[in-house]
Amino acid sequence: MGRSITWTNIFAGPVQAHSMSSGSLADLAPRRRAIYVATTVLLALAYGSLPRNGWHGGAQLHTLMELAATLLALIVGILALVRFYSKKENAILFIATGFIGTGLLDGYHAFVSAPVFMQYFPSPPPALIPWSGFASRLFLSVLLWLSWMFWRRESAHQESRPVPEYLVYLIVGAWTLGYFLFFALAPLPVGYKQLPIFHRLQEFLPAIFAIMALAGYLHKGRWKRDPLEFWLVLAIMLWIGQSLYMSTSDRLYD
């Protein structure tokens, strides 16, 4: 039987990779490349068919989905933080803080978009819900891009100097808190534009950062042998797909 994949296997990272033979690594690379190609094809097919689907959800379903997203992001962020403190790498620090901050923003989005609490905010639902959901996508996309940028800087200078954790926590925490206060106090414009195809043009901004992060991690090549980076690249691909899907949304809960 093949070995089962667990969270411990994924976050074991380079330690697990070093214990594998070169033959095993050579076998993994084509399989993982095929998974990426298949994922891209499926996302493209879904992108062509889903916008024409007339299905709509509702406020309660949306809140439950956002709570699930909150829990998942926090779990991934905490596990990445454990990985960082076992072997300090700047890229892992940005990934960990990115997912933890995204979990907090998703939780806040679930809170502000719940029918019970929407009345306490200055913006109506067609403005509050799309913009508060956009915040977490932009936040994570930027942090994933920064994680690759810091690795690239270290690789170019042939040195690994850890970024002060407190400074990253301070900046990310202030950014997250700023989002909270902004959506609680500022009146927002409606998040939809009456355009032929793309009704939420703002969604291209996180897609751009995610595409840059994806290109960087693919070029880096560690996904061929490191389970963490393999799954990270796959997650970024799905993240880009989500941003592109959201750009075609023309009303709440579609």
Termini Cα gap: 42 Å
Please bin the fraction of helical residues. over 70%
**Rg calc:** 19 Å
Count of helical regions: 9
**Quick one: how many beta strands?**
0
Order of helices and strands: HHHHHHHHH
Fraction of residues in β-strands: under 5%
Which secondary-structure class do the elements indicate? mainly alpha
Shape: globular
Mean pLDDT: 84
Largest sheet: none
Q: Stretches where pLDDT falls below 50 for ≥5 residues? A: 1-5, 14-21
What key attributes describe this structure?
single chain; 254 residues; mainly alpha; 9 helices; 72% helix; globular
Fold and architecture overview:
Helices cover 72% and strands 0% of the residues. The protein has helices at 7-12, 14-18, 22-49, 59-86, 90-113, 125-157, 165-185, 204-220, 227-246. 33% of the residues are buried.
